[in-house]
Amino acid sequence: MQIATPVLPSTEAVSPLSIHESTIDGGFWATMQKLNADRILPHIITWERRMGWVDNFRLSAEHHIEQRRGAVFTDSDVYKMLEAIAWELGRQPNDALQREFDDIVQWIAKAQREDGYLETSFGDTGQPARYSDLEWGHELYCCGHLLQAATARIRIGHPDCALVGVARRFADRIVEDFAPGRIERIGGHPEIETAMLEFGRATGNDAYIQAATRFINRRGHHTLADSHFGREYFQDDIPIRQATRLRGHAVRALYLTAGAIDCAVENHDDELLGIVRRQYQDTLEKRTYLTGGMGSRHSDEAFGDDYELPPDRAYCETCAGVGSIMVAWRLLLATGDLSYGNIIERTLYNVIAASPSTDGTSFFYVNPLQQRNRTHEAAPDQCSLRAQASTRAPWFEVACCPSNVSRTLGQLSAYVAVNNGNGLSLIQFMPGTIRTTLHDGGTLALRIETQYPDDGIVTITVLDAPQTAWTFSTRIPDWAGTMTVTVNGRSRTDQGAQASLTGVMPAGTTIRLEMPVAPRITYPDMHIDAVRGCAAVERGPIVYCMESIDQKLSQDLNRYRIDPQSTLTDDGRYILATGSLLNDGPTDDPTDGSADDGRLPYHDAEQHIGGQPCTLRLVPYHDWANRGPSTMRVWIPLGE
Amino acid sequence: MQIATPVLPSTEAVSPLSIHESTIDGGFWATMQKLNADRILPHIITWERRMGWVDNFRLSAEHHIEQRRGAVFTDSDVYKMLEAIAWELGRQPNDALQREFDDIVQWIAKAQREDGYLETSFGDTGQPARYSDLEWGHELYCCGHLLQAATARIRIGHPDCALVGVARRFADRIVEDFAPGRIERIGGHPEIETAMLEFGRATGNDAYIQAATRFINRRGHHTLADSHFGREYFQDDIPIRQATRLRGHAVRALYLTAGAIDCAVENHDDELLGIVRRQYQDTLEKRTYLTGGMGSRHSDEAFGDDYELPPDRAYCETCAGVGSIMVAWRLLLATGDLSYGNIIERTLYNVIAASPSTDGTSFFYVNPLQQRNRTHEAAPDQCSLRAQASTRAPWFEVACCPSNVSRTLGQLSAYVAVNNGNGLSLIQFMPGTIRTTLHDGGTLALRIETQYPDDGIVTITVLDAPQTAWTFSTRIPDWAGTMTVTVNGRSRTDQGAQASLTGVMPAGTTIRLEMPVAPRITYPDMHIDAVRGCAAVERGPIVYCMESIDQKLSQDLNRYRIDPQSTLTDDGRYILATGSLLNDGPTDDPTDGSADDGRLPYHDAEQHIGGQPCTLRLVPYHDWANRGPSTMRVWIPLGE
């Protein structure tokens, strides 16, 4: 049975809930979902129309491809926007979004060729031939996003949607064209793997699942031409089963990993699942930023080396955050290990939430942990390349990120909890209601109230439950390490990755969770050269940062030191830390008349610059750059 | 009068010597010059022929441009190779090199069009039109390197060389085509500016000097289309007189700066000279690596922000080192400030000398200060892109660096000293002989003997001198800060940037310089986030590094700490420092069975890992990676 959830394996350790079974109706993420519906999605639609990416389908239908606009992969942006609309329509009716959706789909349907092929960049007279540039052409990638949009339509209850028919015909075309004995190759940007497999799950068509499996198995055999960035860039260097780590282009690597998990699950391939699980663990241990961000390098948008985690040049593409959530969620479903919820939570609060501005009309494509310069804001009508500006931009020529954030927000309530067969396992802490059917047919309904993460208390009221014993489990966040669980007045404190209770807990039962969300200081591993001698401030799952405009004594963030013994207090607006402001030294400003003797910035003794005690003001990282250009740092040098 | 020296201003504070007046005949750099003649130059010629770049001129002459091979700018590589050959032929006769030179020049001459235009990538039937891609087409850049090769031929005494005639005709074409009222634009990669101006000096043609000045003045007015990297990338964002810093693509910025200095000097434009001088000082203070390397970013080969100096992702393109020497040398001549010799020395020993392997058959294109992984060596017949491999490569598709090193080595003895009018100013310390004519017509000849930088003693014997008082000056290296000068047994110790003696110092006089070259520990400025809590070891002008293969207890460089109180000893092969080896923690090797729990690399307390005292072995940075793949670091974390 199809339910409104993004990943629906045929077998799993725990079962996902639909966005109808689990809803969010308050707090941080309800606000984000509302922002998505009211501002982000309309903004995306406006820009994709303005850029001509929607109209490309009309031009393709009418064979006016010489007027086509945008990069080769813009079809995928339209599909991803449709997927985001689909999830939002699944969440609640919206006539305006429905009209947009229907209008766009009609043109996509008209652009589809007789034989099912559908691309505005390839295959028409005067265009490159179909599949003539599998390395960079993104045809399979675009098809994948079409299939994900169609899957969303099926899952929210519209299997008869025109887009589903279009997707089925294009999928059939791809399956046939890339069958054994035909084009035994792959696409340069993974996406078809996870998308076609999920479309197979959604349609019950095993041919799609087998095609996805073939795409996974073919990768790493050099069926793509080498690239300037090396074959590692698109994970075609070695087969996935031989790899020990995620590598190359981060979004490509994470999308591929998601597909590999899907294939492993559907094919009962525990060996592959174990391999990919270890690859992701290795990535978490050595190639992940404090924010959950992944991908260090600008030049090839790649992971970089182990422990190469520079804060200022962190790429941390927003889409890599989405990809990491995709991977972690699939591993959680496949293994039942609730601790995958830790990286999901960290990435949601510190990457996904950081991307859109508070008004939902501009976005970060890259998410660095340090900003050295005040840069200009992009004008409201200005389209950026992608990672050039260090402030949010209203739109990008490469615009994968906004719609990826949007579809994630639309699906979000599906990630709150899972059905553990005999009850529910809570993964994220958001106000809302969960109502589902247990494996024995019983109904379980919970009401969740919380101010989390502002405080650490989550109150769960059982609205409906079986008469017999059932199991309530909850993730214990890694940053907490401990949780006090109180049921009907009886408390116990659990440590580790999860807490679990089994018993008869009828309607009216109250389960109270308590976690220590006091601000805390975090230190980097000694292997991370780039932030040696620094510390960061966190509160619950939220990473904080110093933004220049909040500091009273000096706007020069280079002059601040944080006291490792600092008491940290939350004044409602800032976390306040104690530290020092170093005396005025040379600054970054060349017009300030500072010493100008041409000496290199190296000395024969350690610098000791006196300072004065001061208070450091920190704000949540996801809130930075919402008040005009400023400088920012997450990692603050240690001092008194 | 033309003499064999790369830069010959019509007015200057101090006068350059020719490579015939100043020779190097022993020590480190004589070995490098011999390597250049015997191995590097033949290697470059072999590869430029193998890649088809030489043959492109024949194909162009015969209008078979459909067979043309290589990137759009390979003509420049051939010209730069010819320039390197010219300087080497100026240094000493070499029949083999002369034959190569003559053979290549004949084809270049045949490829030149009737009207003087000369390009294998543009202007023929089936090719893009002339000047149709000034942003990326590199026509003016290629022309510039042709002019520099021709200037070298004039300067070493061959003004009648066919290449000079070819260059003159192409220069005239460019002057006319880019005259006021015609194409009032510039080229995307500066080079024509400094080259055409120097060609004007070499030919005495003021039209070239004025054309160069126009190219300088036009830049910054957006006559180039914007690029993905922004207009800053090719310094077209703002006029050079409005800029306060070097920015964008490092090689482009430095070549432009060299041209701006040339123009300022020839046009007696002290305002421009002052502006550019401050820009370079700012770059030295905030955007220069300990090695003298410049340019931090891989993505656009750019400077990056102030104090953005990551050791592992340091780009430090070899050509940027050459460009920095070009700028510093011009400023030294224009101002008489010998302290510009400091950055020249540092760059020579730690960038230029680092690029070629000890056998002269492979090269670094980028020069990072940390290498995290053992990477594969490129095979002897393998052409790399440019910066992909972290080991030296025999050749590159973008091959600007090898010939840039080669031409610099061929010119090198011209950088040893300058004529200060009433004597000589010594800038670099290399065994050799200097013989020149003072402004009053007197002859001055010095013999220099030294083991520098192995020791700090330089012995100068006056071979020939005026009967009257003359002035001997010498740079006091910045790393020394002090120098003891002994003349005929009488010593004095000077501090500051230079020492100067004026007196009657007849033939037979001995001047002895003594500098403290004991190994020392160097600390980074507090603004450099990327190497906080680390120190480096230097000895004289030479930066040292730890290479994994030299360490006895562990190959994992992450485990070593250097004692800031360490005594440093030189055992003839290594500098030995005391420090500690941390106990075995998690390593970079994913196959080592280390903890695999998926925890992020962040902790709630500072890590304190015990260790044992040990000896750190350091080698000169320029020697690293000559004994197979290894890991390396210049900056070593401080510990006991």
UniProtKB/TrEMBL annotation, chains A, B:
Skewed-composition ranges (Acidic residues): 586-595
A GO term, aspect molecular function: hydrolase activity
UniProt keyword list: Hydrolase
Region (Disordered): 579-606
SUPFAM superfamilies recorded: Six-hairpin glycosidases
Boundaries of every Non-reducing end beta-L-arabinofuranosidase-like GH127 middle domain copy: 426-516
Protein name (Swiss-Prot/TrEMBL): Beta-L-arabinofuranosidase, Glycosyl hydrolase family
Natural source organism: Bifidobacterium ramosum
